[in-house]
Amino acid sequence: MNASAALWVSILLGACAQVFLKKGVSPRGAVEGPVSYLSLLRSGWVWAWAVCFFFATGLWLVAISSIQLSYAFPLLSVGYPIVGVLSILMLKERVPATRWIAIAVITLGVALIFRTA
Amino acid sequence: MTLIVQKNSSELQLSAAAVPSFSAMWQAAALGAIALASCGHLLIKLGLTSAAQGAIGLGLLAKIAHYLLQPIVVGGLAVYGLGTALWIYAVSQRNISFLYPLTALNYVIVTLGGKFLFGEVIPSGRWIGIGVVAIGVGLLQLSAKETQA
């Protein structure tokens, strides 16, 4: 796998990991009452998060060993809209227009930060 | 390993009413998670860099063990793990489409840390980027009010 492919797969896996974590921790809104960390170990979604997270990190290290950080880092923000779409499909989250605008503004800001890095 | 969230205690409601949004526990957890993750990364990188000399000539497994036994790396992993625990708590309380873009604050923290801790010179273009990210985070807060999550 070349570095560019590793980078994109890492971004995708990282985004999926976050949605899997939410699915495992509280698929419907906020948890009421105590959050037990040990009981999370029984959730398949939490394990899916851990596996995706592990490979996303590994592939990220492979990618940045040959791709410049100032190019790779801002691309991470592509994960924000991906998480937005996946949260609608997998978690039925309501994503208002303001949030899409916020995601676009943040992604633009990250690009600006690294354009001058 | 159990976090008790007293949602209905009158004390919590009172403090939440006095200082809207920023007094909530999940806010502290999310911001703490983001800050600890960046600190953990920095420590791990510092430890790996300083240990690279001693790893020359070792086999793969010995090399991994050599890196993982560095005190700074162990400390970095611990800080990172604590950040992850806080993140899981925040995720249990809020929509992921809201929380995940918040992690862009990482870039803001690292830039401010670079300036104030290490005296780095920040080009003006990067301050503009930081301002734009901050505006985006403000908009995210607005969107959280719309959905109550």
Describe this structure in words.
The complex is a heterodimer of chains A (117) and B (149). With 117 residues, chain A is mostly helical. Chain A has one domain (3-115). Helix content of chain A is 74%, strand content 2%. The two termini of chain A are 27 Å apart. Chain B is mostly helical and 149 residues long. Chain B folds into 2 domains: 25-93; 96-149, no CATH class. Chain B contains 7 helices and 1 strand, in the order E-H-H-H-H-H-H-H. Chain B is flat. At the A-B interface, helix 1, strand 1, helix 2, helix 5 and helix 6 of A face strand 1, helix 4, helix 5 and helix 7 of B. Strand 1 (35-36) of chain A pairs antiparallel with strand 1 of chain B, so a sheet runs across the interface.
Brief account:
The complex is a heterodimer of chains A (117) and B (149). With 117 residues, chain A is mostly helical.
Tag the structure with descriptive keywords.
heterodimer; A: 117 residues; mainly alpha; 6 helices; 2% strand; B: 149 residues; 2 domains; 7 helices; 76% helix; disordered N terminus
Annotate the secondary structure layout.
The complex is a heterodimer of chains A (117) and B (149).
Chain A: H1 3-25, E1 35-36, H2 37-40, H3 44-64, H4 69-75, H5 79-91, H6 97-115
Helix pairs in contact in A: 1-3, 1-5, 4-6
Chain B: E1 2-3, H1 10-18, H2 25-51, H3 60-68, H4 71-93, H5 96-102, H6 105-118, H7 124-147
Helix pairs in contact in B: 2-4, 2-6, 6-7
Number of self-contained structural domains of chain A: 1
Q: What general form of chain B does the structure show?
A: flat
Distance between the termini of chain A: 27 Å
**What Rg of chain B, in angstroms, do the CA atoms define?**
19 Å
Mean pLDDT of chain A: 89
Oligomeric assembly? heterodimer
Task: State the low-pLDDT regions of chain B, or none.
Answer: 1-23
| Helicity range of chain B | over 70%
The N- to C-terminal Cα distance of chain B equals 25 Å
Radius of gyration of chain A: 16 Å
Sheet/helix structural class of chain A: mainly alpha
Order of helices and strands of chain A: HEHHHHH
Question: From N to C, what is the helix and strand string of chain B?
Answer: EHHHHHHH
Number of DSSP-assigned strands of chain B: 1
Uncertain stretches of 5 or more adjacent residues of chain A: none
Whole-number total of structural domains of chain B: 2
